Structures
1.
Amino acid sequence: LTDKKGHFSVQMLSFLFSIPVFFMLPQFTTVLSLSLGVFALSVITETFRPANSVSISSYARPENITRAFSLNRMALNLGFSIGPALGGVLAAISYKWLFYGNGLTAAIAGLIFYSYFKNIQPNKKKHDKNADIKKEKEGISPWKDFPFVLFSLFCCFYTVCFFQFLSTLPIFYREVHQLSKANIGLILAFNGMVVFALEMLFVQIAERKMRPVNIIITGTLLLSASFLLLLLPGGQWILFSAMFIMSVSEILCLPFMATVSLKRAGKGREGAYMGLNALAFSSAHVLSPIIGTNIAAHFGYDALWIFIAVLGVLTAIGFKWVFKKF
């Protein structure tokens, strides 16, 4: 859709179509109807993401693309920080207001988006040294770009490890360290604070000092180290130290993964490439809690952290190998 209709149109339509679905969801009271409603909403809202990624590359200068992705992620992290707090206030009034609030927010965002971007022209791109390679790939589906498929697969492996942050880590904090909900929330919020405070700085330094392949490999190895740290005895300082290292890993990996995906795309296929890379992350959302909770339940948390650390090291090796094919 992004490649055929353009990133502006797709983002605008995503805003518009999500509004009525948000308002309709509270009326669905059965499991089947609610599931179908959530599925429809997910299709509409997730269509926004590849188009948004392509628009970042369109509006940013070529030398600033990675920092532009980082700035966008800062906005997302800020939203993730505000959203749960605002959601709690709305839920205290009525759970229906969670959906009405989202519908109103989508309407306001869509209005601002249209008003500002309707007349904004994309930046003119400088001559690309890889123009001949891109010309060869012009019009090719990302599924036929085997090195990129492998790259996205390793992105999926990385994210399976990283998304333990959303599933098994909070359970580990509660069951093993006996932390209260407030303290668990504090550690998880610490991740957002680190990313918000340091991402732009770290990305700028990394861009100047290292190649993207080495940045991603370093970030992946740091993720493994953060989980190995959880094997050590100690109090909350261990948990905060591990979370800090994990946050640095996120800073180094996620913006550069997006940049690599975008730069790999041939002309007119940017949306398809960003969509395939987004699929890798979505698949990890499904696989990560299934893998993590099952290993923890059958073999314990120490076994899980060792497994995740080993998978991270193997993924780093995979990234090094696949970049040689680019």
Note: The chain is about 80% helix and 0% strand.
2.
Amino acid sequence: KCLDLMQGGEIFIPKIPSIRIMDLAKAVAPHCKYKLIGIRPGEKIHEVLVPEDEAHNTIEYRKMYIILPVFHYWDPKDHYKGHKTLNHGFKYSSDINKDWLTVEALQKILRKDEVK
């Protein structure tokens, strides 16, 4: 879809659900024992997909966010008809996402992949 939309220089970020790593572990191996060891040096807890400092260059379009290049020869108003501009300070990251996958939803996705 993005190849059909792109004009050059955009970054496309799909609106996707977040997951908790423990839910993923329970979905993949529900009967296994696990041990929490804490966060490791350099490990991130959440992923930031649209940082606040990019909000002014980002639009919401259909089921995605698009970070526009600072310099572009085309008008986003003409190309991305119906897009919404985002408020100053907008951020899209896994910790504030409203859409989360459950263990059951993850297992359903995993079962679909087994069939392929």
Note: The two ends are 22 Å apart (CA to CA).
3.
Amino acid sequence: MRRWRAGLLLAVCGVAATAGAVSYQGERALGQQFDLAARTQTRLLDAPEVVAYVSGIGARIAAALDESYFDYRFAVIADARVNAFAVPGGYVYVHSGLLDAVRSDDELAAVLGHEIAHVHARHAVRQQEQTQVLNYAALFGSLLSIVQPAVGSLATAASQAAVLQYQREFEQEADYLGARYMSAAGYDARAMLDFFQQLGERQRHSPNAAPPYLHTHPLSEERLTRLEAVLKTPQWAPRPRGGASPALRYVQALVRAHTNPPAEVLERYARERAAAPDDPLAAYLYGVVCLELGQLDAAAPALAAARRGGIEAADRELGRLALRQRDAERARPLLTAHLARQPDDAGAHVDLAKAAEALGARDAARASYLRALTLAPWLDSAQHGYGLLAGRAGQVGDGFYHLASAARLDGDYATALNQYARAVPLLPPADPRTEDARQWVVVLSSYLGVPPPP
């Protein structure tokens, strides 16, 4: 553990030395180092549909930027507190509690637009230059303390501890830019006021239990007034508002099943289904949480009722249910039917690969894993499944590379380092993965504070 801490601080100092005052590459390196640390210090939700939903909205907003200096990456932290934050270099993190709290796609877009604005406007670096208080090690520690206070305090103690709280003008600029970006992406920017209004109500009713989001994004009357002027909408103005989309309701069901007490989640969705017995979506969401929480006997009739009611996505869950029941022959056509309608569902491609693998169709399984990786390279289950099958097919370098990527995404950096190093001489020299593996050997060796493998 001491060697890990020393390596971590050395890596951060290395970022500072490489970055200088305002280097884009320095910001990318800082974000990468933070992401590596976060994956070992907190639990990230790996439910493909949850990450894909957040990433889809975030990518749509990022695509509306005039010019982008970074590749934006989005992750979901399994934490019931309402919070979100961005790290220099394009890394954006959303707490599961925030997904639970937003009431529409537009409200989530408002949060992501604000965080993307912080990154795009380089507020962390600009604040460092203006105040001459922050340095990279202090900023790294402040960020890390969000997800792991004990470790974060170690890092900040080395550099005068700084709190991740942007200056007032940067918060206002992020509101203005975020509203502009989300509007350009087709979202209703007035949802930013709706979300802030909701948080303000929470704070007024429970001043001692304010959402952590307000600690780093403090609300003030001046800030709200300026935002009203930008949006040309009074905060309390009546207007039609869209509710939660089916996609958001599905994601919220998954998030609650993964992070909230199981009995409470089951009771909530059973109650909603009982209140609307003829609503196929209520049946579907109840079936989803039952499946996620292992209540297979209850999941089956609920999902079947949803499918009869016209919820086509229930084919995916019915296929997953069949896999859980070790019936790959029944799972495969259900998943195939779902993917014919939703070909970009990476998680379903992984499930189809598992069904094909169970039926001995390894080539088909590899093709499904590869399709999942094309859609979602951050999906560790796809990296791992493809890596195993590639190795068994005699493509050893291919196998080591993808197993290394799976280990890295899972926070097992010692294993990842070893397998990337083994992949390099076995992959074709012109293969882009060869250079990628070499770079990860350098990054992970530095992070772990060990020499690169021979």
Note: Strands lie at 73-77, 84-87, 91-95.
4.
Amino acid sequence: MATRYDHLVVLTADLKESSAWLEDRLGVPPKGAGKHAMMGTHNALWGLGDSYLELIAVDPDAPRPARNRWFGFDDPEVQARLAEGPYLGTWAVSTDDLPGLLAHAPEGMGPPEDFARDDLTWQVSIAEGPGLPLGGAWPLMIHWKTGMHLAERLGHQGLALDSLVISGTGAGQAAAQFTGLERVQFAPGPGPTRLSATLNTPTGPVAL
């Protein structure tokens, strides 16, 4: 099974407002955007060279789906944090064996589901409950099927991930499966799961 770090996921309550905030922090505007009709969400994207950063929010113009939205948007704990502002909520990995990776995932993950946008097709497993798996320590699992990867589409914007650190109670279980991924570090310990990333930008390091 080949598994690699894929991208960062920043959660927000207001995509337009937080896009301006993140553009100011990173020094460059987003280079991509999209909507997820199945999930009732929309996003803005920044290229990080061989990966990317996704800023995502509930789409106020989309009907509420009959299921829980991904990334914990229907979880009261996530909603309370979003009331304080955008934050690095979770991360994503890509894999060539999504069913195999699912066998090691926390309980409550759903089966692989198909997504598509233009020529890009992919599969993900989404938590069946409202919360983030292991509080965000367990990543979104993606199997990219066809089309050019988003990192290649976005190209280089002078941004790059230097490091991602996952700490707290959820980090231990995630570390058992994902230790050895480039630029990803785990710091298991007491307390809630927290993610922190350092990005290299045109104006210097930026912490998220």
Note: The chain has a mean pLDDT of 95.
